[in-house]
């Protein structure tokens, strides 16, 4: 009888471990299934031109999702990234066209590198502002970043009274003629945006897995009070993750303005939803303390392929929104299920 009970428990533990492994690999499975589905159903899905377009779209979402991963792992949320994209796109457009008017008949003009640095500083500043609201004023992350969402979007509209900044070709006399290259240029046949994404992803993965800061981010998200008692500066960690998220959003604003050679204040609307979807689909827990940059990148590919594939199949934009919402809900439900299975496996291991 005892032997039978032991065998039953071992079988149950083995099944739970197998199921847990499948759940952990769910993003890869989803990517494979989505890829195969659209390769069969969507015409020209695997054409070189379409693959290039998808890679650019995935890169934009991946930037935001990487920053969002850090924020969510640390126990927060950043709803302002889409508005930061729009504001930074407008700032870059304004600097390319006008520079900074000193009001005395003179203006300061900038080259492409200086424009990029200024825009990145704007994104970082807004991210730091989010972090300060959360840490110093104890505003809930949802409310703080929701407020920043409106402020940044309003500022983007004020830049041009709601109009577009067109013809962002740059000026050779000021060294800004290379601005469009950021969005449309390529190195070794690979878009510049993909190279930038690779650098950002490597830096983010290194921070997350190889530095004390990365361990502190996970500690704060897993147990903020415990992290504080163990000597972690919780405030600095939270300010860093929001600053990093702002930097990623600024990069997206730059790249979009460069790709389109125009900037519009509505740029980036609802981008935060795609970023959250990619992060959660990639295994990042909304309760904090768990998530991987690699998983987020795969999640960004799933969201990007899903969006472009649905467009190629002629699916209504309204249904696309519904499907994205269902994907987010399914990802969260599966994540909760994974946590329950993981807890069960740990109990079986301790019992044995």
How would you describe what is shown here?
Keywords: Cell inner membrane, Cell membrane, Membrane, Transmembrane, Transmembrane helix, Transport. The protein is mainly α and 352 residues long. The chain has one domain (26-351): ABC transporter involved in vitamin B12 uptake, BtuC (Orthogonal Bundle), CATH 1.10.3470. It has 14 helices and 4 strands. The protein has helices at residues 2-24, 26-41, 48-73, 81-98, 112-135, 141-160, 181-184, 192-210, 212-222, 224-229, 234-260, 271-281, 293-312, 317-351, and strands at 100-101, 107-108, 186-187, 190-191. The strands form 2 sheets. Strands 1-2 form a two-stranded antiparallel sheet. The protein has a two-stranded antiparallel ribbon with strand order 3-4. Strand 3 and strand 4 (190-191) form a beta hairpin. Helix 4 runs antiparallel to helix 5, helix 4 packs across helix 11 (234-260) and helix 5 (112-135) packs antiparallel against helix 6. The chain is globular and about 80 Å long. The chain starts with a helix and ends with a helix.
In summary, what is this structure?
This protein has helices at 2-24, 26-41, 48-73, 81-98, 112-135, 141-160, 181-184, 192-210, 212-222, 224-229, 234-260, 271-281, 293-312, 317-351; strands spanning 100-101, 107-108, 186-187, 190-191. It has 352 residues and is mainly alpha-helical.
